[in-house]
Write a structure and sequence with these properties.
SH3 type barrels; 11 helices; 4-stranded antiparallel beta sheet; 42% helix; 5-stranded antiparallel beta sheet; alpha+beta; 4 domains; elongated
Length: 314
């Protein structure tokens, strides 16, 4: 941890020219005395940091000292920094910001100015709307457990609403769409599983360490472990006013425009509660044509909803 902090201090000073001990202490959440000890260690390592007095003073790199910056092109650095800021918006924020800061120092001053202007042209934010702070904290805890190879104990609610205590060896943090999951070996099931972080009711990173199990990293693996439900082939008919949502959710090859302005859609989803809710979210703008079983299920649920609203509020 200290080596990471020393390197980050150097990068911050190079990038900002002058940084006070108080600013560094606040940034790294350590004492001012610790920062002074870190500066001494950096000097001993051969990087000359000097203290400049006055109102705009602070620590700075000796002006005659030069870094070899020819590692990445400015365009490559811009792409990496943009991606890091997007990830940092939802998980591992401080680490992502530190890494982006380090990369920025590889640019000469004129390119840094250009980078700031280019940052206005594209923003990547992987965090969901109104992302709860406790879920972000939980994702950070799981990431720490993955890096330290520590078993996590948790109370987890599966897709059927069943709550169970689980001991899991976390392997990978996964962002799918705007939802965070983690992939790990579930000791209760004796196999790898995908867990949605928002369904974790309680989490504890234990002191028990584990050896990572052999596994393949591929998109197919995530898909295979996403659901145990077989795929469901759907034929849907949408009214014309549903055009925007149809274009948002379905590929052009799945959609056929009808003469009345409506749309027929052929698509495939795993059958679960999510897909039922998805169909009902269109209200009267969608009709399930096939399969008949799903058509009957949606009708039955719509009738139950109708029965609720026929009653007066107590």
């Amino acid at each position: 941890m200290k080596l990471d902090r020393l390197f980050a201090i150097v990068m911050l000073i190079v990038n900002r020219k002058r940084v006070s001990a108080e600013e560094l202490a606040r940034y790294f959440e350590v004492s001012v005395r610790t920062i002074y000890r870190d500066i001494d260690a950096i000097n001993l390592a051969g990087i000359p940091i000097v203290a400049y007095p006055g109102k705009n003073g602070g620590f700075g790199i000796m002006e005659s000292f030069k870094f070899d910056r020819h590692v990445l092109t400015p365009d490559e650095i811009f792409s990496i920094v943009t991606a890091l800021k997007g990830v940092g918006a939802s998980v591992a924020g401080k680490r992502a910001r530190d890494t982006a800061e380090k990369l920025t120092t590889l640019l000469p001053p004129d390119e840094r100015t250009r980078l700031k202007k280019r940052e206005e042209t594209i923003i990547i934010d992987s965090s969901p709307w109104m992302y709860p702070a406790h879920l972000k904290k939980r994702a950070d805890e799981i990431l720490r457990a993955i890096e330290e190879c520590r078993v996590v104990g948790m109370s987890y609610v599966d897709g059927r609403g069943t709550t169970a205590k689980r001991a899991v060896e976390p392997m990978t943090l996964v962002l799918k769409g705007t939802v965070w999951y983690f992939f790990g070996y579930c000791r209760l099931r004796g196999d790898f599983r995908v867990f949605r972080i928002s369904r974790i009711k309680s989490l504890r990173v234990t002191g028990e360490r584990f050896a990572r199990r052999p596994m393949e990293y591929s998109p197919e693996q995530w898909t295979d472990n996403w659901t145990s439900k077989p795929p469901l082939d759907l034929v849907l008919r949408f009214k014309p006013r549903a055009r925007v949502r149809v274009e948002d959710y379905f590929l052009p090859a799945q959609v056929r425009r009808r003469k009345d302005g409506g749309f027929d859609v052929r698509t495939r989803y795993p059958e679960d509660e999510w897909v039922y809710g998805f169909l009902l979210s269109f209200g009267e703008d969608v009709e399930v044509l096939e399969p008949r079983r799903i058509r009957d299920l949606v009708r039955a649920r719509a009738e139950k909803i109708h029965a609720i609203y026929e009653k007066d509020v107590d």
